[in-house]
Design goal:
CATH class of one domain: Mainly Beta
Oligomer: single chain
Structural class: alpha+beta
Low-confidence stretches: none
CATH superfamily of one domain: Trypsin-like serine proteases
Distance between the termini: 118 Å
Strand content: 25-35%
Order of helices and strands: HHHEEEHEEEEEEEEEEH
Strand order of the largest sheet: 5-4-1-2-3-7-6
Number of helices: 5
Number of strands: 13
Helix content: 25-40%
Radius of gyration: 35 Å
Mean pLDDT: 80
CATH architecture of one domain: Beta Barrel
CATH topology of one domain: Thrombin, subunit H
Length: 286
């Protein structure tokens, strides 16, 4: 029986729909394939870039490790010469100080950060260290080298930016320095400044107290003026009297001059450190 006209129209329309569906499906499949191929290529490129970046970082880390190893070896060599250095310092210091340098210097530390270097000293047997705040300011990492050549992680306890004092802590038990009563200091009194301008190598300069109760950057009249040479790296180191006591913390010198340095008086150090420690750990340290 021949198909009626309307049957032919229905069959033709249905066939057309199937063809359109197949074409559309084919196009969609192609688009998806192209998209997946693009994503695959993009992902491959990202992986390649990541591998390259990782390799670069590994190379940088390797270089950093090698450099650190060299520095540690250099420090080891310097540490080995400390005894000779002390003998030299004792010989070069005046008679008033030759007998105390060996004891005092064991409580002086070198502080190295990722941006600066300075000096500090132990003020409590439990490893509390005082230095200038500007030595630690903006540092992302820091290490403290003690007299025995060991390097210690630093716990930043607190600071007083106005007086440029920072309180740090390292693990262990140590000999500490005694703070003198700075009210008893006398103009003309002999003192020595101890620091680490060359890192682990200690430097001692001798001088006298030129003036007392001088005004510093903070506006407070609590600074000792001394003609003992202060070099970069001396910041945060102790100013020592003939009894081997800390009379001040070396802080700054007048730029462009020689023999005009300033140290924050020991009484102010004690007051400031105890304020910081009382606030943070709930007790006085000195």
């Amino acid at each position: 029986m021949p198909l009626q006209k309307h049957h032919k129209i229905i069959i033709g329309g249905f066939s057309t729909i199937i063809i359109i569906f197949m074409i559309t499906t084919g196009v969609l499949i192609y688009v998806l394939f192209v998209k997946q191929d693009f994503q695959y290529n993009s992902l491959s490129k990202q992986i390649e870039n990541l591998q390259t970046d990782t390799q670069i970082k590994l190379n940088e880390l390797t270089t950093s490790i090698i450099q650190t190893e060299k520095e540690l070896n250099s420090l080891g060599s310097q540490i080995g010469s400390i005894d000779k250095e002390i003998d030299f310092l004792k010989a070069s210091a005046g008679e008033d100080f030759s007998g105390i340098i060996e004891d005092v210097i064991k409580s002086v530390v070198t502080i190295r950060t990722d941006i600066s270097q300075g000096t500090g000293f132990i003020i409590n047997k439990n490893g509390y260290v005082v230095t200038n705040y500007h030595v630690m300011k903006d540092a992302q990492s820091a290490g403290i080298f003690t007299y025995d050549g060991n390097i210690h992680e630093v716990n930043f306890i607190g600071y007083n930016e106005n007086l440029d004092i920072a309180l740090l802590k390292i693990e262990g038990t140590y000999n500490s320095l005694t703070l003198a009563d700075s009210d008893n200091a006398q103009i003309g009194e002999k003192v020595i400044a101890i620091g680490n301008p060359l890192g682990i190598q200690f430097s001692v300069s001798e001088g006298i107290i030129s003036n007392l109760h001088q005004e510093g950057p903070s506006g407070i009249k609590a600074y000792i003026q001394t003609d003992a040479a202060l070099n970069p790296g001396n910041s945060g180191g102790p100013l020592i009297n003939k009894k081997g006591e800390v009379i001040g913390i070396n802080n700054f010198k007048i730029s462009g001059t020689e023999g005009i340095g300033f140290a924050l008086e020991s009484n102010q150090i004690k007051e400031t450190v105890n304020e910081i420690s009382s606030e943070v750990i709930g007790e006085d340290l000195i």
